[in-house]
Amino acid sequence: MSSYVDWSALGQVVLASVLVGAGLPALFALGLRGVFQAEGRIEERGSAGGDGSDVALAPPRRVLGTVTAVVCFVVVLAAVVGGIVLIVRS
C-alpha cells in the first residue's frame, strides 16, 4: 500500500464520478425514450407480412413508456436536488 495514494478513497471517487457522470445522463436519455414511446413517436419496425412497414404501438407499450419516463426523471431530479443540498450544507 502506497503512503501517497489512498486507494480506497480513489476508488470511491471514480465510482461516484462514473455513476453521476455517465449514469445520470444515460438515465435521462432513457426517460426521454419513454416520453417518445408514450407519445407514440417510436414505432416498431416490420410487420407480420415482412414488408418493413411501420406498425403503431399498442396502448400497453405507451403506458410502459410513461412509467419509464416518470421513474427515470424522478431519480434524476432526486440526484440533482440531493447534490445541491449536499453542496449547500457543506
Can you walk through the features of this model?
It contains 2 helices and no strands. It is mainly α. The longest helix is centred in the first third of the chain and has 33 residues, at 7-39. It is elongated, with a radius of gyration of 20 Å. The mean pLDDT is 85. The chain crosses the membrane at residues 12-32, 63-88. Keywords: Membrane, Transmembrane, Transmembrane helix.
Shape: elongated
Distance between the ends: 31 Å
Number of strands: 0
Strand % is under 5%
Would you kindly provide a brief summary of this structure?
The protein is an all-alpha fold and 90 residues long. The chain has helices at residues 7-39, 59-89.
Topology:
Elements: H1 7-39, H2 59-89
Task: Sum up the structure in keywords.
membrane, transmembrane, transmembrane helix, 90 residues, elongated, 0% strand, mainly alpha
